[in-house]
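seq/struct pair 1
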Amino acid sequence: MFTIGYATKPIATYIEQLQQHGVTVVADVRSVPYSKVFFDYHQEALRQHLQQAGLRYVYLGDELGPRSKDPAHYDNSQQVQFDRLMQAPLYKSGVQRLFDGVDKGFCIAMTCACKDPAICHRSLLVGWSLMHHYDCELQHITHDGALESQSALEQRLMTLTDTVPDLLAGEAAALQLAYQQQCRACAYRRHS
């Protein structure tokens, strides 16, 4: 399984990168499947572009999106808590849909808008939960089309957050701290 962010990519480049990595299905994991600027990535337009390229489209934003409709998934500051979201039956059913698709022989790429997966729920929610709860490692298609594994991305989180293992916090504890810090910086926050 892969992830890909469209950011400022022309739709032709986006499709080229998907095909380069053998993707056959795009799972849209945006809570709101529209772009304010890039109209090729509106849900209907994206579905049509993919279909013309021989790729399938499925919407999984309700299950795997970064925004929850359940108030229990938010803290007092109204920021979504990915650890709570990962435990939700709806989220788990979305993960199961991914695995069902892979079992049927599909090569799936989850898509969202963010250019860098390190600031996106593709890695902080879905990638983290797949790696740490399901023993499945995602490959993130970077903006230039290269691959970054979830493991490499998690190491990069420690650099991004300036978190280093020391005598009190070993590698695993430092990674957890870096992850929590990145979630606080990047996770969706509802506006009152």
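seq/struct pair 2
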Amino acid sequence: MPIYLDNNATTRTDPAVVASMLPYFTEQFGNASSAHAFGSEVAIGLKAARKSLQALLGAAFDHEIVFTSGGTESDNTAILSSLDVQEGRDEIVTSAVEHPAVLAVVEHLQATRGIKAHIIGVDASGRLDLDAYARALGPRTALATVMWANNETGTLFPVAHLADLAHAAGALFHTDAVQAVGKVPIDLQATPIDMLSLSGHKLHGPKGIGALYLRKGIKFSPLVRGGPQERRRRGGTENVPGIIGLGKAAELALAHLKAAPDEIGDLRNRLEHGVVQQIGHCQVLGDRENRLPNTSNVAFEHLEGEAILHHLNRAGIAASLGSACSSGSMEPSHVLRAMDVPAAALRGAIRFSFSRENTVEEVDRVLQVLPEVITKLRTLSPT
């Protein structure tokens, strides 16, 4: 049986999520903005999905949830809105290890609008330089945007503390929590975050749907303008089946949050222990003490990650080099370069990312196959 360990790229849509969506294609097909019964029953479904997401995030109000097409749109919206609603503030503070959905927008704004960006570095474990972050904040800072959890290493960032520092400078704070939502507990009523991005397909929901959490009272400028949908914060007819599926995925994620992180963490630890014991000249990357329970990034020295993945794929095992959004690039990961991973290991890093669907038997199968793959490739390697 194939083994899927690339859940940070995307997760399998839970069958219960699919089942929840199906009626909204055929039976409950109305437009939620319509005044008749066909529309009102759909509006009720959207309200329920919003409530489910509110519960998962620990948000104070369900209307703080704005449905979008996914994490990338949510990131773009948060960044652009922050600049539009604050006069005299034209600087952004972010980290060197953000997802391209953040870094590409910041780079574009530098080139086209002349905004100043402070890109804060990380240490060898992927932890943010907090002193540099604090120094970068100032009276012209419109937004600080730092991810909750890194998609390649799983390293967690102290977003509550970072938000406090941003607020002290009069700036807004946004976090790309695409990898964190559904994997670690989140309580936005107790965390001073202004905006948060998430994506359905990272938590066993459908692709093409996500949300932006927008704290009540925060000034906001829409990215997508049009009709009155989402309280005029995101125009366009709602992706009703997607929203229903995201709501169901949020409900399931909340139900699994008590036990799943520990169980998934045990699988990750089992894999890492076996790899380190059986394979020499490799290292586990990221903050070993403060990271997502499902993510393991292992660098194999003097090897090319593409070759490792090719042989794993032939054995029915799916893993990745890092961000799926950067696959195909011949350049080493910007995350690992920011961490100053040694040149000998930089191109041999493989990310294994688990979900609640993985098993001990699958881990043990990987531990049978992987040492043989590494031994074979090192035998062939000129280095």
